[in-house]
Amino acid sequence: MSTPRVLVVDDEVDIRKLIEITLARMGVETDAAENVECARERLADEQFDLCLTDMRMPDGTGTDLVRHIQTHHPTLPVAVITAYGNTDDAVECMKLGAFDFVSKPVDIHMLRKLVESALSLESPASPRTPQPAQTALVGETAGIRQLRKTIEKLGRSQAPVYITGESGTGKELVAREIHSQGTRRHGPFVPVNCGAIPSELMESELFGHLRGSFTGATQDKEGLFQAADGGTLFLDEVADLPLHMQVKLLRAIQERSIRPVGAKAETPVDVRIVSATHHDLAERVREGVFRQDLFYRLNVIQVTVPPLRERMADIPRLANSLLAGIAERYGLSQPPTLTPDAVERLQGHSFPGNVRELDNVLERAVALTDNDRITADDLQVDPAPPASMNAGDDADGLRNELEDLERQRILEALQATRFNKTKAAERLGMSFRQLRYRTKKLGID
Ligand SMILES: Nc1ncnc2c1ncn2[C@@H]1O[C@H](COP(=O)(O)OP(=O)(O)OP(=O)(O)O)[C@@H](O)[C@H]1O
Ligand SMILES: [Mg+2]
Q1: Ranges for the Sigma-54 factor interaction domain (predicted)?
Q2: Full set of structural domains in the chain with CATH
Q3: d(CA 73, CA 135)
Q4: Of the residues 356, 361, 432, 433, which should be mutated to test ligand 1's pocket, given the most ligand atoms within 8 Å of the CB?
Q5: Residue 394: predicted pLDDT
Q6: What is the value of pTM for the model shown?
């Protein structure tokens, strides 16, 4: 492999020198440009493996250059150098496609890491870059293909990612994929369910604590941030973070360092933040229960996982893959298969609980039949057509009739079980989620 080349764009001679010396020690060749115009020329004339650019230059900004690179040299990784405390610029650049940033004064250690991770990605000969990892994300519909492409592209970025999507669509799976397809795949992936940690323990869980810092703290304890050092921290159900933790999290993200409970000093941590929620965080911000500034930091890159009803063509593939998993859990020698009418039944269901619901439906079917072929009747899902098929007056009339009938049956079941939804759902042969969804939709209180 030839010596990697980096273009350093900065109007300050001292910074250019510092970077040049640091990179030379890593066996990396540098070339310098003192302003945006000059950088554009060099990029047009020569081949580079990485571009590092300052933000403020006499004839333009680093943002301009990032934009230029995205248009004219889209395969070239670019990172920005920002003034201390001015991470808004960094966020802006990462939204535009920069993969990372360093702040001034430039920390040599950080700089080295950044360059290493950028260049290892760009060297196909490197043993650290295996063939694209096997994807766990099943699906060939346009939405899923697009999602896979996005994940691949995000692999080189260190920017925080915010994943949205309805319950059960696969947000956690996507978070894991972002980790395992990226430069941090050799580091840990640490999932945190923000809704499951009691508010008063949250700080110690996330940042760790020193012995004696509070009653019961008999030993030093590492927090989840430290556990994720060099890897990815997945903040699941991030909307559930209490406000006092939101402030602390924001600080940790901005400073890239944390302070364990009871500690005097901060410790630097190298963690990529991926967060997810099925709530509408923007709405939470408007309601005043989620901090705008934290939302802005988390949501540098947004990834949306489409609901299952928008990718019904994937149902057979998904079902087969889920059945293989179920067979393994049940110790079956071979995964059961679906009859054509079973597939049809599934494709006629709207799946408010998305892929998780599909998994549950299949698992229940496997548990309830001795057969290795699952029929439509084994599935116990309602055969109602999806909403999009209800066009025209006739269909509307029919739908109203069906809804009336359904409302009546659900009410009967609820009354018979004294409004115990779990039991009512059981009686009706639907999942709790399904029942909840249906009652809401039918306006049953
Ligand atoms: N495209 C897919 N291919 C294969 N399995 C999938 C896919 N999408 C989701 N799954 C599986 O469906 C289940 C639910 O996915 P996951 O837990 O990631 O959903 P989620 O969006 O995080 O849900 P929630 O909002 O309830 O936390 C998991 O078992 C996951 O492996
Ligand atoms: Mg989840």
Answers
A1: 137-367
A2: 5-121 (3.40.50.2300), 143-304 (3.40.50.300), 309-389 (1.10.8.60), 397-445 (1.10.10.60)
A3: 27
A4: 356
A5: 59
A6: 0.78
